[in-house]
Each structure stands twice: as C-alpha cells, then as structure tokens.
Inverse folding.
C-alpha cells in the first residue's frame, strides 16, 4: 500500500546554502524504518509465543518450548532485519520462508542438511518421516502427548508460518486486526483438545501480543491524520485503559466465581468434538470422554439368554510398553470369519453357553462388542476378523454401525474353588501377557509387593490387589485425573494414579493389570461396556425363547482387567469401585481360607448376584451429574427459555436502541426561555442527526468531510429518496428545510424555531422506506447500519486506547533516551 | 519619457492636479460612511454586475463571480493563464461595470516604482514640490503582465496593496475605497520575466486560471465579437458608493465558531500534510474567511456555511502552498492536494458518533 512505501523512502538530500529557501512548515514526522520493524516483529513473536503457551497440556511438559522459541525468534528476526533494511515486502516474506526452512532443518534434520541448515533431498525424506510420526501421534495418542520430534516439528513449522502470515497481514497489507485470526487458530487446538481449554497463561499471552501488534501498527501509523484523537485528554486514555483492563479481568475471573463451570451441562473435561463421535481407533483414549459425555450417545441394546446382564467386550490391551497404550491388532495373526472362533486354550470343567443378540445402533467402532468368550458371531455384514490371542473381533473395512448380530458365547464356570486350584504355571499363551515394561515406575512394583505380601497363590494375589483398589483409600472420580493432569493412560499416568488415588475404570483396571504382571500373573485390560439397564422390552431369540432387553451407552463404557489362570482361561476381575458387577469368585467372602467348604459354588460372570461389596449394579448412579441432568428436566428447560430470551433480546437490541434513539431525538422539548438562558434550540441539530442516521440506514451514509448542504444534495439526488415531481416531493422539501434549519442553527446568528421536525423526519422516513427494496428495509429495521457503525466504533475504543498508550509510551521512552544520550558525553 | 514607459492611466480624476492626502474612508464617496445594504438590494446589485461581465465574457461565470467576490472581500486578484483567454478583458469589464476610477499599468522591465506610486515634482511657478500621483491611485488597478516588471517595481505595487497607502517624501497618501488590484501573469513566456515569488503571491487574495472557453461559448464569442470590442458596450451598472455599501454588507456577515474552527483545521491540515513544503499562512486563512463571507453574501445569506469556505478555498489557497519535491514529481498539483484534504477533513470537528453531539446540545 502506498502509505507503507512512504515509510521506507529515503529522505531528500539536504540542500546546500539553503538560507534563501523558505523554511518548511512543521510537518508530521514521517516515521523512517527506525524502531518500527523491530517493535512489530517483537510484538508478533510475543503474540505467537504467548498463544503457544496454551499448548502446554496438549503436549506434555515444556521440552517443546525451546525449539519453538528458536524458530519463532529466528523468523521474526529475519523479518525485522529485512524490513529495517527496507527490502521489498514480498522479498522479506520470501526470505522469511527461507529462514524458517533453515531453522527447521537446523533443529530437526541437522545431519541430513548441508552445513547443518541448508535443506537437501535427504532433509525432505527426514521431514516426511517426521510428519508421518506426527500423524501417528495425532491419530493414536491422547492429550497430553509426549513431545516427540514429529509433533514438535509440525508445531514449530506451523507457528513459524503463522509468524510470517501475521507479519504479512500487519505490515505490507496493513491489516493488523486480521492477525488475530492466526492467534485464534493456535488457541483453537487446546480449546478443543485440552480439558482445561486454553488456560489463563495462553489467553493472557495471546491477548497481550495481539494488543501489542495493534498498538505498534497504530503507533507507527504513517499519516498523522489517521491517528484519531491525538489531541484528546488523559481522561479518555485512562478510561480506555480501565475499560480494557476490566474486560480482560472479567473474562478471567467470572468463570471462576460463577458456579457450574465444572459440572452441569458442560462439565469441565467434556469438550465439544466438532468432528463427530470418535472413530474408536483407540478406545482407551475415548473412554474418559465417553464417560463424561452428559447425554450418552452410541446406544447399544442387547438381549441374552444368560441369567443376567453381561459385560460387552470390544478389545483388549495387553502391551504396556510405550507412552500410550493402544490395542495391538496383531494384523498378521488375525483370522477371517467370525462365525467360528476358538479360544486356543484348554478349559477344564463345566462350560456355560449363552446366546446374545446385539443391536449396535448408531455406535460406530471397528471393534465388535461381544460377551466373553465368543464362539461364533452370526448376522454380521462385511468382513470381520478375530484375533486368536485376545478374541477381539474387528473389521478394517466396515464398522459396527447399524449391525445386528447374534453371539454364541461359551465361558467356563468359574468358582473361587476352581480358581484357587488353578495354580499351574500358565502355558499356551503368548509371553506378551507376562512382559513387564522396562520403565515400570517404582511405585507400581512397591505397591504390588506390599499389597500381595500376605497372599500365596495367584488367586489370592489377584484378590488382594482388587481389594486394595476397591478399598476406601481410592475414590472413583471422572474429574480428578483431568484436574491433576493424568487423564489418559500409560505407565506415567499409572504412577500418578497410585499417588493421588483417584480415577476411573481406566486407571483402576490398568493398575490391577500391571500390578498382576508385576506379581507374575498374565494379564490384559479388556475395554468395552459394563452391564447396562433394562429397557423394559423383551426380545425373542431364535430357538431360545424371549429374554429381557438391556441397553448400554457411552456412559457405560468400561475397562476391566482379565487375568489368566491355567485351566480356566481369562478371568475378568472388577477393581473399579462402584462400577460394574463384582464376580462372585472375586468377592471378599470367597477368600481362599474357606474354600474347603465348597459351598459357594455358583455361576460367575453371567450371574451378577447381589454382592456384599459396595458394588452397585446401576452404573447410572456413579455419574451423578449426568444422572441428575437427565432426571430433572426443569433446569434445562429454564436454561433453554432463558437462552431463547437472551437471543431474542440480542437480535432485537439494534432495532430497540435505534427506535429509542429516534424517539429521544424527536421528542426533545425546546428550552423554556431561549433568550434568558442563551441556549439554542437543540431540535434542528437532533433532527439533523436523525436525518443523517436515516440516510445511513437506507444506504446513503454521510461522510464526516461533507458539508450539510452537500450531504443534503447527495441524498436528494440519490435514488434512495426517489425522484422529484412525484409522491416524494414532500420528502425532498422536508430534507431541504431540515438542512436549512440545521445550517441556520449551527452556523447562523440566531436560532429560529424549527417547527414540526418530527413530522418532517417521518415524511422522509416514509419516502425512504417506500423507495427501498425489502432487503434494505429489513436491514434498516433490524440491523440499522447507523447503529451498527456506532457499536463497532465503541468496540474499537479499547484498541485505539492501546494505540494511544503505545504512542505515549514511545514518546516518553524516546525523550528519556534523548536525555540519557545528552548526559553521556558529560560523564566522559 | 512618460509615453515610453507605457503608463496608461485611463480616467484619472487627479491627473495633473496637486494631490492631497485623502481621508481613509470614503474616498470618492463624498465623505459618507457606507451604509449596509439590505439583502434584496445587495442581490440586485450583484446580479447587475455579474450580468454585465457575463455579457462580455462568454462561459466564464465562475471566474466572474470569483472576481466580484474578491472585490467585495476587499482583496486583490491574480489572473494567471496563457495569453489570449481574456484575462485583461475580465479585469477591464469588472472595472467598467462599476462606476469608479480605473487605471491600467502595463508592466515592462524598465518600469520604475515611481511610475506606480507617483512622484514629487518641483513646481517652478509655485516654487513647491507637488505630488503627482501614480497609476495606483484608482479604485481598480489593472496590472498587466506583472511578472515582466523588475522586482523593485513589483514590490512597490505590492506594498501599496498591503498598506492601502502610498508614502512619498515622507507624506502618506491614502488610496481609494474600494481598492482592488487585478494583476495578470503569463506563466508560459518566462524568459526575461520576474515571476512573483511565493511570498508576494500571498498578497493576492485569490488566483484564477481562466482556462479556455468551451465550444459553444467560443463559437458565440467568434460571432459577437467580430465587429467591435465588446468593452465598448459596457456601461457602469453600480456606483462606487454601492460597491462600498456592498463591502460593508459583506463585513456584517456572521461567522460562527464552527466555521472558524473549520477554517483553522484547513490551515493545520495543509501545514501537517506530508506532501506540502509550505502550508497556508494565517493571512491566507484570514483572506479565506473574508472571501467566504463575500460568497455567503452573494448567495443571499447573512452567515457563512462550510460550503462557502470550500467553494473559494481552491482559488484562495492554491497559489500560496508549495508542493514537496516528491509530490510535485509524482504529478500532484496544489489543487489535487487541497481536494484530498477537503475529502478527508471532517466538517464538524468531532467524531462521527452523534451521541456526543446529542449530549452537548441537549
């Protein structure tokens, strides 16, 4: 833009012997390159880094911040240097791209690059690897993710590009206000991913940076005339600072003061997910969010021939290595066809068979929920494969959505007696289920050893671990992991959980599974659904009769450990307090001591008989927030009604304020005794203001540089008022008389009474309405441009104030600097 | 010597007589103070003058009106244009339409200051020095091709314009009322001329470029002006007393605070503009306001509108401001820069939000 090019132009050479030349009048100081590029680049760097503060929590720790600072500072410095050297704007932008590529190569691909920072073909291969790694991280891990090279590279590259974009918007394109969009883009990421949303530090950082950018661009505005209100007093400045500060403080404190931001319709930790429900690639990660979802999406109904409701198992997790646990699909070992599934290990004793008909409805996942242990699944659409090691059924080409299928399952009849007898060394299963990750935190092993110290057999150890986890020391909480920053899974999360002793099924189940392995029991975590609720309907199963129907939804999502006992196979346990159903064999009454009585030989797993433990077979109760919201509809209705009212008020407010303003202007009474008070009759001025706003509303806005007469002529010659000689003659006359009244009142010697200003305005309004198209009429009624303009002006006040503040600070600093420089030679 | 210097004083009432200092007001008005005219008579008189000028010069109504504006605002007029577009004709027509004394000075390089102001000559018979007034002693002085005279002579005239009096041998002689210098300057032929420096141009209230007439006006001019000089037909339509009364009327025009603020804002904007090396002087703002008052009076109003200021501003300010080198080389003209200033300068010196206005006035 032309204004920008002035800034960079060199000063004209001083004319020698200029005594006769007329002295130039004092002009506005045209800012040279001076401090502007540096200040602007600094502001942009502060803004981007400030906004990036909010990414702590999306990435774990602060290790990623140093490379980010390096990248942003290098790119900003490049821009500042080039702008200070008055390079072509486009050249500066291109060079900053080059410097971004250089600094990224230096940080991430130093070996592959020429001289450490010049990208080569090898660099691009490395970058490809990094991007692939980042993509894997995004897909498979949950926030906070570990700051691996891939994700940090992508983040540095994006934020470096953002610096260039903001600079391009703010400097050559002169649209500093638009740079806020870029900062917003940074903050959208934590806002959607992090349970705590953006966070105070990130918000303040971004806001301060943004205000600095605006202030800089205003402060160094090339034309003095653009700097509005430079002559305004300190009062306005103070007012603006107070306004801006109050707005910021309110934004930050109000959510803390008002109750209900952690619970209610949008409890903390339940974020909007604009991309639809989870694809279920890693059920462990989505589990927490499913539990926290207030509505309970993904309803599944099932009916079973078993004597009670069942656990539905989707997938197991058995590899406890790595930062984040994910199902191991064992793609190589999977077998096709779900109509015949074999457990692969020998089971002794009685086997209980069950038929279960499942309707997956809208639940969408590649893993098929089925009761354990499935023997065959009929009625599925698409190709499904099963894993012999875990019996998880999955499809790579279709999902569970709208599937209706029948599962025949067979599970050994497990009793505490059979369990206590199953002391043989596990055989026939993979060593994977026994492998303890190398980086097992000490607290896990210590806890496991302490808890199981008195237990002898594997069964006893398992019961001891479960008892410990179900004891009063641990509390079930969906919020505590979020608030303490260990929401997710993995070994480090586990350590945190054992320290804080509060979490939900993911934490309890993984704790038990890992502790079991530490004690030498093969274990894995099953992910699926806890037994649900009766729907009250019954479903006929082929050849089995009619059975009651149960339903589960996202709130019933659950994880539980499965431990392997030789001869019995995989046996589920329930360490999570107040969730699911504790199997009979896992209750306190079945401690190994009284096994000899042989009395409590009962069906397990499929018989959720009331247990003496605090287990409650109604999962709805342990998510009290969700439950109460569903039970009592009145607050929701009240909130909806209030929302509608607020919305209506919001939509109606422009029209209302416009009408009120018009009334107030036109109903103004003339002063009682103009001669005595010396006051002029305000009616013509007010009528004129109303005329200007009317014209603005109907598409003929007045310009500040326009004389009243000129504006009036323009209005009368525009099509908005219609042509003369017709019905609109009265309106034309009204405009002319209002104009001359206003001129006389404002510029003339004495005010003359102006009768019937209201009538004239009404006539003009009528004419404008009649000549306008419906869209213009609608806009004038509901979104009057005159009102909108005023509001936008008011909204911009804090930004202008910041600009003035920046300017004043700059002047003070410059003055101080000059004085300081004046002092220096004297000291020498 | 006299004829060689080409000083042509047309009907000068004081030619060859001993000249005595005049009272400041009422020269040629029989000592009466001018009375303020009422609006109707003012309008009538101005219409007659304009009609008289327009009948001679076709298609230049704007120039004619501005010339009359300057006369009524008691300023001086600089006509600057290429030869042959009617500069001198305009000046002469204006002078003849008003029944007052007119003198014409053809400026040449050898013209002396005393030819303009007058000279004291020793009278052998009365054995006294007698003042023989120069060409400047008239109500309307036409200075033709002022840039051909030497700087010394130019300053003599400019001094008279500023002071409204002539000082010779220690005696001050008042000039007439109305007093108006209409100078013409030819911008094309610059060889051997002394163009008026910026500081001198500041003395003229307004500068008009006549410009070529349009096609119809030119055809009409060719038809009507074939036989004889159109000036022959011009007879005075108003008396000097009328003109003095009109001037008094103009002085009574009301100027509101808003207009003064606007005028000052214009001046500041020209001084603050990055594209101008020299902005409008305080004197130019005063003259701008006076011209605006005359415009308002000619429009039949007794108060000044911003429109009046804008109307005359280009003619009043354009010859006083000096462009920056960069602006000049990029093709800007003083006119274009003034237009830019008027396009961005708010008329009401307050933000566009009307709430403030409402509050102030309520």
């Amino acid at each position: 833009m032309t204004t920008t090019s002035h800034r960079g132009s060199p000063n004209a050479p001083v004319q020698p012997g200029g005594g006769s030349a007329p002295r130039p009048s004092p002009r506005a100081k045209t800012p040279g390159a001076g401090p502007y590029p540096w200040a602007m680049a600094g502001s942009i760097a502060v803004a981007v880094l400030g906004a990036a503060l909010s990414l702590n929590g999306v990435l774990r720790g602060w290790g990623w911040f140093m490379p980010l600072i390096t990248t942003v500072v290098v790119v900003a410095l490049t821009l500042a240097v080039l702008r200070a050297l008055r390079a072509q704007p486009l050249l500066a932008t291109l060079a900053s791209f080059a410097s971004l590529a250089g600094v990224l190569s230096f940080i991430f691909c130093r070996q592959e690059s020429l001289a450490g920072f010049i990208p080569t073909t090898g660099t691009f291969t490395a970058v490809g690897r990094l991007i692939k790694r980042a993509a894997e991280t995004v897909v498979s891990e949950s926030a906070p993710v570990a700051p691996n090279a891939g994700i940090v590279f992508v983040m540095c590259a994006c934020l470096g590009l953002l610096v260039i974009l903001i600079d391009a918007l703010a400097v050559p394109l002169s649209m500093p206000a638009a740079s806020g969009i870029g900062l917003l883009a940074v903050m959208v990421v934590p806002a959607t991913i992090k349970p705590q949303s953006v966070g105070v530090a990130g918000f303040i950082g971004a806001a301060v940076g943004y205000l600095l950018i605006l202030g800089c661009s205003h402060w160094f505005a090339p034309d003095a005339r653009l700097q509005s209100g430079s002559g305004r007093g300190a009062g306005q400045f103070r007012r603006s600072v107070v306004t801006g500060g109050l707005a910021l403080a309110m934004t930050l404190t109000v959510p803390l003061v008002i109750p209900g931001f952690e619970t209610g319709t949008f409890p903390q930790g339940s974020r909007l997910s604009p991309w639809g429900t989870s694809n279920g690639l890693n059920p462990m990660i989505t589990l927490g969010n499913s539990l926290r979802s207030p509505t309970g999406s993904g309803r599944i109904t099932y009916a079973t021939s078993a004597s009670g409701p069942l656990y539905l198992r989707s997938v197991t997790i058995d590899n406890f290595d790595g930062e984040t646990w994910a199902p191991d699909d064992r793609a190589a070992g999977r077998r096709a066809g779900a109509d015949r599934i074999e457990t692969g290990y020998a089971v002794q004793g009685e086997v209980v068979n069950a038929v279960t008909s499942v309707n997956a409805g809208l639940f969408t996942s590649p893993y098929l929920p089925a009761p354990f242990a499935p023997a065959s699944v009929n009625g599925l659409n698409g190709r499904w494969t099963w894993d012999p090691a875990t019996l998880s059924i999955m499809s790579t080409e279709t999902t569970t959505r709208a599937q209706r299928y029948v599962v025949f399952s067979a599970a050994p009849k497990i009793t505490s007696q059979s369990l206590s007898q199953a002391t043989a060394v596990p055989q026939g299963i993979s060593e994977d289920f026994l492998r303890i990750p190398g980086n097992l935190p000490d607290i896990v092993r210590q806890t496991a050893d302490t808890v199981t110290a008195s237990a002898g057999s594997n069964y006893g150890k398992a019961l001891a671990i479960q008892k410990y986890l179900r004891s009063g020391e641990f509390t079930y909480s969906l919020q505590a992991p979020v608030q303490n920053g260990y929401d997710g899974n993995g070994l480090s999360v586990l350590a945190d959980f054992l320290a804080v002793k509060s979490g939900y099924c993911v934490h309890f189940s993984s704790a038990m599974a890992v502790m079991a392995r530490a004690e030498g029991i093969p274990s894995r975590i099953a992910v699926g659904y806890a037994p649900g609720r009766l729907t009250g309907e019954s479903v006929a199963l082929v050849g089995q009769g009619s059975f009651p129907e149960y339903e589960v939804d996202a709130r019933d999502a659950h994880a539980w450990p499965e431990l392997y006992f030789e001869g019995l196979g995989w046996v589920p346990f329930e360490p999570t307090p107040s969730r699911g159903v504790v199997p009979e064999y896992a209750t306190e009454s079945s401690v190994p001591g009284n096994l000899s009585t042989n009395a409590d030989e009962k069906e397990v797993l499929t018989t959720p008989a009331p247990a003496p433990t605090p287990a409650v077979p109604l999962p709805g109760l342990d998510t009290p927030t969700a439950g109460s919201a569903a039970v009592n509809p009145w607050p929701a209705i009240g909130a909806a009604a209030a929302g509608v009212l607020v919305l209506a008020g919001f939509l109606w407010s422009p029209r209302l304020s416009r009408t009120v303003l018009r009334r107030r202007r036109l109903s103004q009474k003339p002063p009682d005794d103009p001669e005595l008070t010396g006051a002029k009759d305000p009616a013509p001025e007010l009528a004129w203001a109303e005329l200007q706003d009317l014209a603005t509303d109907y598409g003929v806005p007045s310009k500040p540089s326009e004389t009243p007469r000129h504006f009036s002529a323009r209005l009368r010659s525009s099509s908005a008022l219609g042509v003369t000689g017709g019905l609109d003659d009265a309106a034309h006359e009204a405009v002319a008389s209002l104009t001359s009244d206003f001129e006389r009142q404002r510029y003339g010697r004495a005010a003359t009474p102006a009768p019937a200003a209201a009538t004239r305005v009404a006539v003009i309004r009528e004419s404008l309405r009649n000549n306008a198209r419906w869209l213009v009429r609608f806009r004038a009624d509901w979104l009057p441009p005159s009102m909108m303009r005023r509001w936008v002006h008011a909204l911009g006040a804090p930004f202008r104030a910041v600009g003035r503040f920046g300017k004043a600070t700059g002047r003070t600093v410059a003055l101080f600097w000059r004085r300081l420089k004046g002092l220096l030679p004297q000291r020498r | 010597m006299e004829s060689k210097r080409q000083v042509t004083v047309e009907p000068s009432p004081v030619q060859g007589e001993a000249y005595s200092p005049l009272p400041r007001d009422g020269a040629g008005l029989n000592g009466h103070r001018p009375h303020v005219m009422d609006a109707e008579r003012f309008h009538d008189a101005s219409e007659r003058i304009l009609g008289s000028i327009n009948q001679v010069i076709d298609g230049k109504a704007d120039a004619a009106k501005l010339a009359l504006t300057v006369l009524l605002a008691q300023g001086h007029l600089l006509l600057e244009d290429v030869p042959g577009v009617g500069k001198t004709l305009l000046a002469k027509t204006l002078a003849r339409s008003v029944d007052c004394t007119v003198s014409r000075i053809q400026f040449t390089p050898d013209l002396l200051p005393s030819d303009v102001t007058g000279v004291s000559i020793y009278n052998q018979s009365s054995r006294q020095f007698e003042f023989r007034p120069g060409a400047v002693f008239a109500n309307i002085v036409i200075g033709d091709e002022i840039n051909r005279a030497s700087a010394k002579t130019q300053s003599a005239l400019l001094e008279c314009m500023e002071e409204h009096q002539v000082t010779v041998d220690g005696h001050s002689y008042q000039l007439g009322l109305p007093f108006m210098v209409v100078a013409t300057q030819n911008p094309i032929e610059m060889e051997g001329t002394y163009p008026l420096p910026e500081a001198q141009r500041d003395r003229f209230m307004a500068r008009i470029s006549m410009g070529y007439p349009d096609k119809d006006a030119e055809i009409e001019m060719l038809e009507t002006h074939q036989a004889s000089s159109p000036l022959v037909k011009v007879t005075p339509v108003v008396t000097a007393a009328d003109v003095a009364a009109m001037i008094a009327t103009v002085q009574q025009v009301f100027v509101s605070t808003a207009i003064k603020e606007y005028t000052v804002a214009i001046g500041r904007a020209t001084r603050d503009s990055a594209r101008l090396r020299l902005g409008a002087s305080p004197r130019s703002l005063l003259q701008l306001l006076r011209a605006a008052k005359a415009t308002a009076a000619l429009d039949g109003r007794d108060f000044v509108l911003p429109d009046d200021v804008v109307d005359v501003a280009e003619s009043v300010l354009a010859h006083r401001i000096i462009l920056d080198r960069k602006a000049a080389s990029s093709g800007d003209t003083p006119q274009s820069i003034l237009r830019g200033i008027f396009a961005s300068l708010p008329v009401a010196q307050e933000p566009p939000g009307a709430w403030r206005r409402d509050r102030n006035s309520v």
Residues 1-31, 351-362 of chain B have pLDDT under 50 and may be disordered. The interface with chain A takes residues 198-199, 254, 256, 258-259, 269, 271-274, 276-279, 302-307, 310, 322, 325-326, 342-348, 351-355, 357-358, 361-362 of chain B (CB under 8 Å). Residues 39-56 of chain B form the longest helix (18 residues). Chain B has two domains: 1-14+33-212, 253-346.
